[in-house]
Specification:
mainly alpha, 2 strands, elongated
Length: 115
């Protein structure tokens, strides 16, 4: 199993390296469209290699997906925590009821009989 994981990581590294070598050209990334940037007087643009843009876009997409799922599953996690608390309370109640219960019913009847 370890060798399969290493082989898959090597293949992934080769693929990422080939994408990086094939897309070394510099591209201009603008944070605002030209009309809006001229209106505000800001020209937020920078140049970076295309492979870096591709990898950063994939990383940002993964990060947004992880945060989205974390927030979506919040209700599920809170419900599970409440269920665990209720189950522990019920276990404690069952334990106390078992301690209070007499071991033999005949002896319990004799104990409750007033003479």
């Amino acid at each position: 199993m370890r060798w399969i994981r290493i082989a898959l990581l090597v293949i992934l590294a080769v693929l990422l390296l080939s994408v990086a070598i094939a897309n070394r050209e510099l591209v201009t990334i603008s944070l605002l469209p030209d009309g809006i940037s001229a209106f505000f007087g800001w020209d937020w643009s920078f140049r970076m290699p295309l492979f870096l843009v591709i990898l950063l876009a994939a990383a940002v997409g993964l990060l947004i997906g992880f945060v989205w799922e974390f927030l979506r599953e919040h209700q599920i996690r809170t419900g599970a925590i409440q269920s665990q608390r209720e189950a522990s309370k019920l276990r404690a109640e069952v334990a106390t009821l078992r301690q209070e219960q007499p071991k033999d019913e005949v002896l319990a009847i004799l104990d409750n009989k007033t003479v």
